[in-house]
Amino acid sequence: MAGLLTAALMCGCGRPAGEASSPGQTAAKSAPRAGRLIGLSVLTMNNPFFKEIGDTMAAEAAKKGYEVLAVSGDNDPAKQQNQVKDFIVKKAVAIVLCPCDSRAVAPAIREATAAGIPVFTADIACLDPGAGVVTHVATDNLQGGRMAADAMVEAIGGKGQVAILDYPEVESVILRTQGFHERLDELNRQPGVKVEVVASLPGGGERAKSFKAMQDILQAHPNLAGVFAVNDPSALGARAALESAGKADEVKIVGFDGQPDGKRAIRDGKIYADPIQFPDKIGRQSLEAILRYFNGEEPPKQILIPTALYRQSDAARDRSLK
Questions:
Q1: Domain spanning 37-134 has what CATH number?
Q2: Would you tell me how many other CB atoms lie within 10 Å of the CB of residue 321?
Q3: What strands, in cross-sheet order, belong to the sheet with 224-229?
Q4: CA distances (Å), 14 to each of 33, 43, 288, in order?
Q5: What is d(CA 220, CA 227) in angstroms, rounded to the nearest whole number?
Q6: Using alpha carbons only, what angle is made at residue 66 by residues 279 and 134, rounded to the nearest 5 degrees?
Q7: What is the pTM of this model?
Q8: What number does CATH give the domain 141-277+311-321?
Q9: Could you state, in chain order, the average pLDDT of each consecutive group of 10 residues for the chain (322 residues)?
């Protein structure tokens, strides 16, 4: 599903980049003005996390007289590359990407850069350091993965077999699982802690795929004590599989994200905890980096936003869940 976010234009600043148009918009109130279009392609609009990045970026851009055209890559690197080509044709003044594939995205970034359009990445980085990304804004996923390991050891009492529902195509998840393994290795050197990762299967960051992957893991490892799911849709898919197998009370889930559905599941005891992200901050910081670039400044190459561990006690105090 493609998503489109547009922000009403105001008089503002920025350097012109030619005439921009967006035929076929379903939610636009007006066509983009010359030199005011920022293109945003996210991994998927099926995940509320990326929609919040886009919504925040659009709102902040409108205050400065820019419009954000946000589309969904639908987990398809080829589709995302075509979206970048479309942004180039529309003469976008900047492009922000949440890559569908951290390796495959590099040619699209180079193509935009060659066309004179600066490219920024949000949440998910490009793994080619020579691609030409101006600034990468993301959660500190390595820290979040370490936090997830702490939560897992806490949840299962320091002992047992655990599995990972992975998504190895994207850089943010690579860092999460790296942090999880590193911290688990450290914790296993402490007295009384013995946690073994016995399986890691791809869940695609989606409920349905994670449901099936969790079923496969349970068949191979019936004594499983815990699962680290790399985002909330994965965690919710895992929970559904555990309920279907009658093991919902036996296997603890640690997720990642802190989306509303995930927080409600934590409140209800279906997920143990999440290292939570702040997509609004990612959207805001991405727009700020673009504006700094437009002003002739050199923004940082990387901006990392720390996570926070969210447990059931936090959900009980969370007014947004009332």
A1: 3.40.50.2300
A2: 14
A3: 194-202, 159-166, 224-229, 252-254, 273-276, 308-311
A4: 12, 27, 13
A5: 14
A6: 60
A7: 0.81
A8: 3.40.50.2300
A9: 34 34 32 75 91 96 97 96 98 97 96 97 95 97 98 98 96 96 98 98 96 98 98 97 97 96 97 97 98 96 97 95 84
